[in-house]
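Human: I'm a chemist; would you kindly supply sequence and structure tokens for a protein?

Assistant:
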Amino acid sequence: MFKNILLIAFLLACGQAVEAQVIFRSLEDAWKYADAHNITILTAKYEAEKALYSKRTSYSALLPQVNGTASYTDNIQLPVTIIPGGLLSPNSPGGPISFGQQYAYAAGIAAQMSILNLQSIYNAQIAKQTEELNKVSLANNRKTVYQQVATQFYSYLLMQEAYRLARQSASTADSVFQSVGNKYKEGTVNEANVDVSKLNFERAQQNEISARYQMLTASNNLKGILNLSVKDSLVIESSLSDNLQLETTASFQKDPAILLADYQQRISLSQYRAANGAFAPTLNILYNYAAQRFDKTLEPFSGAIGAAGWFPAQYWSLQASIPIFSSGSRLFLSKRSKIAWNESVAQYENAQKQSAINDENIRLNYEKAVAVLGKTKDVMNLSFDNYTHISYRYEGGIESIESRLNAFKDYIDYQNQYLNSLSDMLVQLYQLKIRQQSF
């Protein structure tokens, strides 16, 4: 029995561990996860949903407004009025007299509809455009988050490659350091050669440590973007070579930044028109129906007793409002709205030009980065081959220990140049890949 309990507890623990583990096999997997969990994207989705209901609220203002009313009054003490003698009849002595009944009932219905109100019409249009703006804003936020995810994803792969090279260099530097140490004990090399070999070894170890911790930091940064906790397990089952393949002939998609600027200038135009709508007259149609009943007994739903019947009244009307003067505030608001519209149009035109320039630069920078990376990788490999040849010649007594140590130092320098070029290429790679995405 106790063994069964332990087995169940172990299986539950394993199940919890599996639930907390997230595995990415590609950058696209990380993007897909971000769509469902990143807080910026989720907030943008909520804003888009709120904008939908704001639009419906504005459109509902154009519909008829219907209200029903009902009231009940208990005249606890009827008011007394002094009547002059003979006013009601020749034989009337006059004096105080009460009018009315103790209970009064009233019910009615009122309807109103705006026939002409330019401001309400343009406000509804603004609400609709704002809804579209929020959708585009969601796309723009997704683009920004995709860039953040790609930065950390590729940083992890870059540091993984740097860690691999650093471990390889550290192993080589260690063997050189041991060899030079033995030669020093034999008296064939001097202490300066030992110091240089140790310096190369320490430098390679430093690169190894730095790459390892930067890789872990990139993993944690990616967790933060994806709304994971620091205790969650994040596994990237992807190699650098798998991510360097890209179809460069694919066309660029519509830039969300341009769409955002477009809807902003549309909203500004509608706001300008709404401001001018304040100068236009408004026209409303109204209908009202009301009924009253007075009774001496509290019987609101009984049949009419004597004069206790319902007295209906109804009417309809047209109401026109023509603005004449309001201290110039409407004129100033109109001028301000026009300036805002002109500003948004200029920003939209600039966004179009800037996006085209950015797209062209992305292509150029990617082509340059790929070409430079190829050269720096060739130089690094040639430098390692040169070190290998010099090492063989040193073992054969042809080259000096100084040449071997300098060749290894050059290899480390070229290795760093390769990693810098690889970093630049990865940045240009994800910029190009993002522009090929449809948000």
DSSP finds eight helices and eight strands in the chain. The first strand starts at residue 21 and ends at 24. The chain has two domains: 20-63+117-280+331-435, 68-76+99-116+283-322.
